[in-house]
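ok so for the tutorial part 2 we go from a plain amino acid sequence to predicted structure tokens. step 1 is just haveing the sequence, like this:
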Amino acid sequence: MKSAHLIRAHRGSHKTLWFGLLGTIVVIVGSILLAYAQTQKKEAEKMNPTKPLPSNAELQKQLTKDQYHVTRECGTETPFHNAYWDNHKAGIYVDLVTGEPLFSSLDKFDSGTGWPSFTKPISPENVVEKRDSSHGMERTEVRGKTSDSHLGHVFNDGPAPTGERYCVNSASLRFIPVEKLKEEGYGQYLSLFQSPQGQQQQAQRD
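step 2 — the prediction. this is what the tokens look like for a chain of 206 residues:
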């Protein structure tokens, strides 16, 4: 009788162990799926072009004086005294208002002007070009498509391969370093920096 009790107890402990292990696996898998769902939701929110834009009154409260002046009043920040003109870190630059991806550090170059300069947008569909005849000059203005924020101007004196120079105000941008792309909902852009060409380009800029 005692041996029968021991066998049943032994089998019971095995069942308890397996149930515990199964429960642990379910919790781990659930956590992974939840984290993935949250990342996807965050990315969808960042990339949602139909998301209502804040009013100018709200933006005036949310943005700094310089950011509001540049984005909503077509202002120009002081060269060599702005956040990103000398930024050499790997990452992407997104629209300050909507979060839409605009430019990549892989396309950034030192133009000597004191403003962030890029050879091309990372997402051309998020950028709109308009004729600008202000201040007695003929220029091409660059604006955020969804935000309608003033970003800067594009000129045809840039380096190869495009020959263009997108001269952009730091105050219209938010920089997201490559190590935070996934966390911020821009994981799809990691491949740009992980490719051999991307790594080589970034190494040349460091």
